[in-house]
Structure formats: C-alpha cells, structure tokens
Amino acid sequence: MSDDTGKPDFNIILANAVHDMKNSVGMLLAALDEIDSRCSPDSCASRDQFSQLRYEGKRLSSNLVQVLTLYRINESRYTPNITENDASDVLEECLLDNEGLLALKGIDIEMDCNDDLQGFFDNELVSGLISSVINNAYKYARSRIHIGAGRENGYLTLYVKDDGNGFPPSMLHEQGQGTPAISFRSGSTGLGLYFAATIAALHRHDDRQGFFTTGNDGINGGGRFTLYLP
Q1: For every residue of the chain, which 3-state class applies, written as one string?
Q2: What are the extents of the domains in the chain?
Q3: Domain 82-229 adopts which CATH fold?
Q4: What sections of the sequence does the record tag as coiled-coil (predicted)?
C-alpha cells in the first residue's frame, strides 16, 4: 500500500477503510433485522426507532458502496458489465429490497413497467442506483412512491417519484448540467447526484450517453428522478 517513493498510498488506505466500514454496517443491519423480526408492533415500544436505525444504516451502507464504486471507476479498476436486462426485473428487485422498510413508515410503493421492456445496461450499477434513490425518497415521501420504466426519444428511462415537497432549487438537474457543488450550509455533499451522473455516463451507444434529470413533476408536485440509458 505504498507508491514508488515508498510513501503510503492514502487512496488505497482510505478505500480499504471504507470497505471495512461497509462490512461492519452490513453486520449491524443484519443484527437489527434479527432483533426487529422478534418484535411485534404491540409488544415493542421501540419499533419506530428500529425503523429509523435501519433506514440510516441502509443509507450509510449505500453511501459507502457509492464511494467504493467511484474509487474503482476513477482508478480504472471497474469495467461496466453491459448486458441485456428486463427493466421490470430490475425494478421489482429494488421494490422488494425496500418495501419492508417503507411499510414501517406507512409508505406505499407502486411499480409500472411492461414485462417486455428491455435495455442494455450494467444490472448491478443501475439496480444499486435506483435502490439508493428509493431509499432517499423514504425520507421525503408522505405516503406514496411510484417507480417505473418506459421509452423516451430512443432512451430507456427508469424513474422514481414521490409525493413529498419536491427537490429544492439547488438539487434540480437537467440534461447537460454539471453536478451540484458541496454545500456546507445544507450539509449536502452531492455524492448521490455525482454517483448518478457517473453511472449514467458509463452507458454509451453510438454518439449518445446516459444522463439523469431531477424535477418536481412527481406525485402531486413531489420529486422525480429519471435515469436515461441509450
């Protein structure tokens, strides 16, 4: 873990530390799931607190995975595995991964996607991104989240929309825009949007590449995230 001068390579040290933290968070989440499975709403007064801990744990785990993935991409250690996939399978996997946690907060999640809708993309990267967006919507949705897929101008689109208050102006993003800068006032690092932009840009076909948008045309004016894949 050192460079040609014999000095420690801080990037590798940091990546290894993040990997260890991710594993520890995974163990904590597994323990929380085990404890939660023994609790019923009537017998466990701390069930709501467990729900909040699971949400924060999943969010932290997702952030750590994003950091590791971005590191591997930046170091040219990740090659996208572009294969043909069913959009409905990806969305259903994301739904199943999140619906239990959403239900504890009283949030319904719905899916709208034709079974024969397919596209070429890295399944692991895209499903991880969409699941992360759903996990983020958990914090802002009032009672509903809607996920779906379709076709638009030759792109496969995957979207997540909720019935919350929508994105603040600083988080609105259109095609061709750069990712938001770090905001010390709001506490936003921009990691999620930077990750989304990076994953989208890895998907190319002919002279087109993927991109994403955010807007406030979700459920009743709530937020909407849309990923476009060529």
Answers
A1: CECCCCCECHHHHHHHHHHHHHHHHHHHHHHHHHHHHCCCCCCCCCHHHHHHHHHHHHHHHHHHHHHHHHHHHHCCCCCCCEEEEEHHHHHHHHHHHHHHHHHHCCCEEEEECCCCCEEEEEHHHHHHHHHHHHHHHHHHCCCEEEEEEEEECCEEEEEEEECCCCCCHHHCECCCCCCCCCECCCCECCHHHHHHHHHHHCCEECCEECEEEEECCCHHHCCEEEEEEC
A2: 10-75, 82-229
A3: Heat Shock Protein 90 (3.30.565)
A4: none
